[in-house]
């Protein structure tokens, strides 16, 4: 069955789920999802790459939380159960890719950098029909896109989720209340564990120190607030920072840029 571009990019989720095979190794899908997060766990038979032109995407699996503002994308391996949340008015462009078409075989989600070239390749691909010409110009562009995705650097915009029930309770609380001020000692006392034991448990279960895990949780929580236009001062307070300078320093450590630089870059993407 032939599809026009408008058919592809407005097709409901049920149509995607009805496909037994993709019409081509890469299938394009654009969805505007204002106030319609896909909160239930679901899977796809193919690799999924979700990229937001506007807004912030969040993917949650049993092992982590993955957040992508503009200029980032979330790589979701085939058959990994995941839920998707997004900020209001988020405009998502998703690619569904046959596993055999990509060399990246990660078993868990990853957040990838989206270069200007990759962004334009995704935009150009969005105009292709579902059954694009694999042997012609369209097929060659798709291969360049796949090559760019294969070498895209991974970014630390994920929050590893512990399996230990005691730690999971702590992480759930810090994730839900990024402005919370409880210390490692406070949590240790609550669980009747020494700071040293709790610190060691954090590293074993998440690969991060307590300080770094909480810092990352706070910065990830800040992204949707910044993207919707909240003042940086208000975002800093909402995420548990007592001063603007401390927030900016932590943000730069996690994101590689200041909040202002990220917002400026996102604005350029929106205007492009």
UniProtKB/TrEMBL annotation:
CDD domains: cupin_NimR-like_N. InterPro entries: AraC-bd, Homeodomain-like_sf, HTH_AraC, HTH_AraC-typ_CS, RmlC-like_jellyroll, RmlC_Cupin_sf, Tscrpt_reg_AraC-type_HTH. GO terms for molecular function: DNA-binding transcription factor activity; sequence-specific DNA binding. Residues 165-265 form the HTH araC/xylS-type domain. Keywords: Activator, DNA-binding, Repressor, Transcription, Transcription regulation. Pfam families: AraC_binding (PF02311), HTH_18 (PF12833). This is AraC family transcriptional regulator.
């Amino acid at each position: 069955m032939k599809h026009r571009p408008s058919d592809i990019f407005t097709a409901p989720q049920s149509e995607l789920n009805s496909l037994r095979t993709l019409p081509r190794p890469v299938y394009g899908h654009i969805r505007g999802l204002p106030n319609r997060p896909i909160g239930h766990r679901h899977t796809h038979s193919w690799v999924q790459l979700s990229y937001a032109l506007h807004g912030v995407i969040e993917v949650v699996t049993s092992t982590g939380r993955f957040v992508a503002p503009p200029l980032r994308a979330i790589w979701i391996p085939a058959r990994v159960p995941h839920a998707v949340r997004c900020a209001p008015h988020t405009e998502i462009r998703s690619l569904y890719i046959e596993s055999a078409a990509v060399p990246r075989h990660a078993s868990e989600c990853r957040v990838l950098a989206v270069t200007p070239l990759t962004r334009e390749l995704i935009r150009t691909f969005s105009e292709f029909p579902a059954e694009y010409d694999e042997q012609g110009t369209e097929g060659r562009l798709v291969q360049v896109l796949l090559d760019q995705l294969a070498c895209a650097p991974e970014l630390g915009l994920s929050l590893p989720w512990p399996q230990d029930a005691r730690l999971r309770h702590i992480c759930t609380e810090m994730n839900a209340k990024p402005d919370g001020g409880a210390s490692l000692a406070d949590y240790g006392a609550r669980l009747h564990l020494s700071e040293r034991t709790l610190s060691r448990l954090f590293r074993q279960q998440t690969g991060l120190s307590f300080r770094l895990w909480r810092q990352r949780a706070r910065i990830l929580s800040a992204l949707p607030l910044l993207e919707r236009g909240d003042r940086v001062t208000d975002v800093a307070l909402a995420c548990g920072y007592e001063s603007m300078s401390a927030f900016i320093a932590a943000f730069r450590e996690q994101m590689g840029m200041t909040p202002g630089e990220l917002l400026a870059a996102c604005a350029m993407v929106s205007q492009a």
